[in-house]
Amino acid sequence: MKELVGIAERVAAQLIARKQTVAVAESSAGGLISASLLAVSGASAYYLGGAVVYTRDARRVLMDISDDGMKGFRSSSEPYAQLLAEQMRSRFKCDWGLSETGAAGPTGNRYGDAAGHSCMAVAGPAAEVMTLETGSSDRFANMQVFAATALKLLLRKLEG
Fold first, then answer.
1. Which sign, positive or negative, has the C-alpha torsion 126, 151, 107, 59?
2. CB-based contacts of 20, cutoff 8 Å, min separation 6
C-alpha cells in the first residue's frame, strides 16, 4: 500500500498544482485506486468520487449504463475501460476520469481473460487506454499492480 500512496501523492501534487479534479471507476482493483488517492492529505481538493463497478448491477446502478448501453462492449476490455473513464468524467463534471476493469484471480473471468488481465483508461485533456497482463494468479498482488498501473497511467498524462 505504501507504493500506491507514493504514486498517489505524485498524482495529487499534479492535480492540486493544476487545480484539477478526478473521479474513479474501478472493478478488480476493488477500491485500491480510490483508497490510495484518499490516503493523501488534502484529497478533497482533487478527488470528487469513485465507484467499485464489480457487477452488472453495479454498472447499471452506479454508472447508469444499461444492458442496451453495453451493446458492442464487454467488461474487461479497452473500449469498456474507456467508456467507464468517460462516464466518470462526464457524470462528475471533472477534469479527469480514471477507470480499471479486469480479472484479479485466482482464475480468469467468464470472458476468457486470464487472471492478471486488466484494462484501464484515462479520459480528460489527454486520453489513453491500455491493457496489462501480469501473468499471476495472486489476487491481492494483482489488485495492487492494477491500482499502481492505473495511477501511473494518470500520472503520465498529468506530467506529459
1. negative
2. 14, 46, 94, 95, 96
